[in-house]
Amino acid sequence: MRKIIHLSVLLFFVSLCALKAQSGDIKFPVSWKFIQGDNLDYAKPGFDDSAWKLIGVNKIWEEQGYDPYDGYAWYRVKIFIPSSLKNNAYLKDSLKIFLGKINNFDQTFLNGTLIGINGKNVKAGTFPNKEFINAPTNLWDYNRRYTIGADNPAIMWDKENVIAVRVYDEGGQGGIYTGNQYVGMANVSEYISLDIAKFPFEYKKNSIKKNFSIRNTYDKSTLKGLFSVKAENKLTGKVTYNKQMHVVLKPGQKINSSVEIKNQDQANYVDYTFKFDGVNETMSLREETPYILTPKPSAKPRINGAKVYGERAGKPFLYKIAATGNEPLNYEAVNLPAGLTVDPKKGIISGSVKDEGEYNVTLIVKNKLGSAKENIKFVIGTLLALTPPMGWNSWNCWGLLLTRIKLWLRLKCTHKRDLQGMVGHILI
Question: Which end of the chain is more exposed for a tag (fewer CB within 10 A), N or C?
Fold first, then answer.
């Protein structure tokens, strides 16, 4: 099996996800009003919050004097929203409120009206209950971006507006914590949906191909623009693919297309760009192609396994002869210790060895094109795992788990009891 050197896909959005404030947007102050506990009256714009304390929305509340604390808390802030924000926008239909990431769950109110729950807009008239805390715990890493119609009476144009956020933290760290919150009008680039994650790269004879789709999610207007796909070698910068087309997308319309790049011995950056007609906005997305560095396996047999293998005396023995070559393959094992046999078709050595010791065995694999021979040592005794069960690249097996543990410890273990629980969980 050929080794894929770079399977990870690098995705980053320039304006597609609108995570950064654009020119003309109004940034929230870093300090908001804060109180522990829960009371739906806190959402009302006329509520007196003068006794509340100030807290930053750029870091968790445990770092601001609320450690330990799990459960409900409320944030409130007042912000002036001028009508010029709407009048100067290309699209004048939706106000956008970006709150960043919240640990773990939230209900967000504008002037007492519930507009969003856990990162999703809600229908008009939705009543705030406690069901919002019964959601996946990974929402702590999900940006909250809410939109509301510009003609919605909940917005008080040219007046002071109140944003209230009901937060529930189920354990560990809590609160609004990433900063850079802002209010602005929805950008036209946010209505272009480019789906590349759904389609994997496909290897052809002399190229690598990727399907993708582009869709207009704006239900009020046709979107037009120049769509381009450009690929370049990651190391040399040489352009390996370049295509442009003018696209006209009606409301809800989706176009399927593809990119095909001649095989490279290094990864390629693939940039997808949509430049809109009539407005200075661009949607950009990038990914990185995988590539195959190792050559195709020979049609003749080749034995690729470990040179030593250990097992305890009297215990079940199981070893698969790792080999490549055109099938069918025929397997042999010469000088096997008493108690072991080899399946000539599957290449599995099994059984049980009674006596401790070191046994030198010759493995032979044949097909119509030739044969391969390798020596292996079976060590029967008290030493196990003389060769790593997953091969020497054990990071491929455990790397993601270790990364998640480190991330969990960094983000969740804010108290001694959290760390003790995590260590106990690992030991179990």
Answer: C
